[in-house]
Design a protein that fits this description.
This protein has about 350 residues and is an alpha/beta fold. The chain has eight helices and ten strands. Strand 4, helix 4 and strand 5 form a beta-alpha-beta unit. The N terminus and C terminus are likely disordered.
Length: about 350
């Protein structure tokens, strides 16, 4: 049986911004029109990264957003399909599809996040691990249409990989500078290293309106790193506790993919952790068996198959304990599976 320990969560410490850095989630005087990273309830729609674009399917998922009580949708867009791997061409047809779906989402009152996707996909095999010259061309076109729209955020690059923090900073600081210099007033999401899974040790980028995003909490696959509060603290919680805007830009839990054992307890505790640390979350994605129970996008799959039901309850504020000031454990409940005696409710338990 795994050994178990206790961790007392303390209130987030006061944060003093270093020179050249601000923790404001927007680059203008008032952030009222921008997404609040701590209040994000989102869903990623992957239909724009398919070889065949399923616009009607995307619109159906956007309409289903009301049933999930989400306030944001995130679109993964194939960078090389938009501007090719060298950044030397442009696809008006693909851009028109993006514009159609983005307009539809905005009409439905949702915030929109646009993401440059470079992982392997049908017809696009370069699998760029970090921003390239094509990334700059991609955002130049996005700025043309959305650079002045506060309801559209730019997620600059999907899941950086094969890099350390020195290379990450050397690649992303110039990209941030570039989009700002070309007129972007958008909120910028910048993902961590190791497939976006961690912000541990991240150097803060210069500029305003930067939100630090992570995927796969703590590791690309849960078996690579212990699923504990200590992992969450080091990977993103410590940064958020300093008052720096942080968002979980992609979370999923389902059999056959990224999956935590004892999923009901673990995902519930994770949502408590996010609530306490003011970290918003984007679910991936409305697919049968992953988030939905059927092809009907308004249905929610239940544990242990997937965490759709928990997501829906969390997004509606109906998940037990998820709205409290800090994570709790009910008397007699343990994440290691054994029965426990009553413990002070301000304590949050981790299994080592």
């Amino acid at each position: 049986m795994a050994a178990c320990g206790w961790l007392l969560l303390r209130p987030p410490p006061q944060f003093t911004a270093p020179p050249g850095f601000t923790d404001r989630p927007c680059p203008v005087a008032s952030c009222a029109a921008y997404p609040d990273p701590g209040q994000v309830r989102g869903i990623t729609l992957a239909t724009l990264q398919n070889w065949v674009l399923f616009i009607k399917s995307a619109e159906a998922q956007i309409r289903a957003a009301k049933a999930w009580n989400v306030n944001l949708v995130r679109f993964q867009i194939v960078q090389d399909k938009m501007v090719d791997a060298a950044g030397s061409s442009f696809s008006p047809r693909y851009m028109n599809s993006v514009r159609t779906i983005v307009h539809y989402a905005l009409q439905h009152g949702l915030f929109v996040v646009l993401n440059a996707q470079t992982e392997l996909s049908l017809g696009f095999v370069h699998d760029e691990a970090m921003p390239t010259i094509a990334t700059y061309a991609f955002w130049r076109h996005m700025i043309k249409w959305y650079g002045q729209n506060p309801r559209v955020a730019f997620d600059l690059f999907n899941e950086p990989r094969d890099c350390d923090w020195g290379l990450w900073q050397a690649d992303f600081q110039p990209l941030v500078n570039y989009v700002r210099a070309h007129g972007s007033l958008n909120q910028l999401w910048v993902e961590g290293i190791d497939w976006g899974s961690t912000l541990a040790g991240a150097p803060l980028l210069r500029g305003q309106g930067i939100v630090y995003s992570y995927h796969h909490p703590g590791s690309p696959w849960p078996w690579q790193t212990p699923v504990t509060v200590a992992t969450w603290d080091s990977a993103f919680g410590d940064l958020a506790a300093k008052g720096i805007p942080v968002v979980d830009g992609e979370f999923v839990n389902f059999m056959g993919g990224y999956y935590w054992p004892r999923s009901t307890q673990m995902v519930t505790r994770y949502f408590e952790y996010l609530k306490y640390h003011h970290i918003g979350v984007v679910a991936w994605s409305l697919q049968a068996g992953v988030m939905t129970a059927t092809s009907d996008e308004t249905t929610a799959v239940s544990e242990p198959q997937g965490a759709g039901r928990l997501f829906m309850r969390y997004f509606w504020g109906r998940l037990p304990n998820a709205a409290v000031a800090q994570p709790v454990l009910a008397a007699g409940e343990g994440m290691c599976g054994e029965r426990l005696s009553a413990r002070p409710r301000q304590q949050f338990r981790q299994c080592l």
